[in-house]
Amino acid sequence: MAFFPPLHILERTVMTARALTLLRLHIEAVWGIQLPPLTHHTVELLAEGKQPSWKLYAAEIANTQLAIYRPDIALSEREALFARARQALACPPTAYADPQHISREVALEQVAKPSISMATAQRMARLLTLTDQEAVDRFEPGEVEYYFHSERRPLVGVIVEGRLLCIAHSSRRTAQACELGIETLPEARRRGYALAATLLWADAVAREGLISFYSASATNTASLRLAAAAGYRAFAQGVTIDG
Fold first, then answer.
1. pTM summary value
2. DSSP state, 35?
3. Quick check: 185 and 139 in contact, CB under 8 A?
4. By its UniProt entry, which SUPFAM superfamilies does this protein fall under (predicted)?
5. pLDDT for res 96
6. Is 187 within 8 Å of 207 (Cβ atoms)?
7. For the chain, N or C: smaller number of CB within 10 Å?
8. Strand ranges (DSSP E) for the chain?
C-alpha cells in the first residue's frame, strides 16, 4: 500500500520549496551572481563568474537555516561564520551585540491584500514617461539617465502641482524578477505616496509576468511598515557576513 504524507507536511514542503526559489531569485538579483540549486542546507557559490563581497549569506526559511558560502572561504572558517550568523538570526535586530561586518535583511513577496485599493493608488501615482524627465531631475539632480534606463522600468511617480514627490523603480532587474527601489522627499512622507507608488510598480511588474521583490534592512522599521501595507510578507530572514 502506498504511503502518502499528511497534507500539512506536503503543504509545508511546497511552501519551503517556493521560498527557496524566491530566495535564489532575490540573491541573484541583488548581488548579480549565479547560484547553484538550493537543494542542501549548505551551498557553495559557483567558482566561475562574479563573486559577492560577503563570505556567507545565511537565511532562515520556514524554521530551516541555510548557509551559502563563497567558494574561496576555507572549510576551517565556515563553522565559525555560521555560528555568528545563527546567533544573529536568533536575536531581535536591535538587540544583536556583534554587528561588525554583519548585515541583516528581510526578503518579502506580495501575497496579501494591500491596505489601500488599486483605484486609490492610481489616483495618487502614475507611470512616468520621458516627458517627466525635468521633474525627475529636480527630484534627484543628475540621475535622469539612471531612472530612465530600461533596467529601471517600470518607473512610477507621485506628482503634485508639477512637483515629483515620490518615485518607485526597479533597483534590480533580472529575466524573472524585479526588486523595488523607492524614494520619497522628506516633507512628503506619511501621506500614502510611497504606498501608492509601490502598488502601481508591483502591478506593472506582475503584468510583465515577473516577480516583484521587496527587501529591507531588518532594522528599517519604516520600510518594513510600508512593505506590510503594500501586502508584502517575509519569506526569508537573511544575514550576510563580509570579509
1. 0.88
2. P
3. yes
4. Acyl-CoA N-acyltransferases (Nat)
5. 61
6. no
7. N
8. 42-44, 54-61, 64-69, 102-110, 126-127, 156-160, 163-173, 177-184, 211-217, 232-242
The structural domains of the chain, with segments of one domain joined by +, span 7-105, 118-232
Q: Which fold has domain 118-232?
A: Aminopeptidase (3.40.630)
Query: How many Å apart are CA 218 and CA 213, to the nearest integer?
Result: 15
Backbone angles phi, psi at 32, to 5 degrees: 60, 35
Q: What would the pLDDT profile of 20-79 be if each residue is shown by its tens digit?
A: 999 999 999 999 998 888 888 899 998 888 999 999 999 999 888 999 999 999 999 999
Percent of the chain with pLDDT over 70: 92
Distances (CA, A) of 133 to 52, 141, 163, 171, 181: 33, 10, 11, 18, 18
Which residue do the cell numbers 502641482 mark?
161
**The three three-digit cell numbers of residue 205, written as one number:** 511588474
Q: Is 149 helix (H, G, I), strand (E, B) or coil?
A: coil
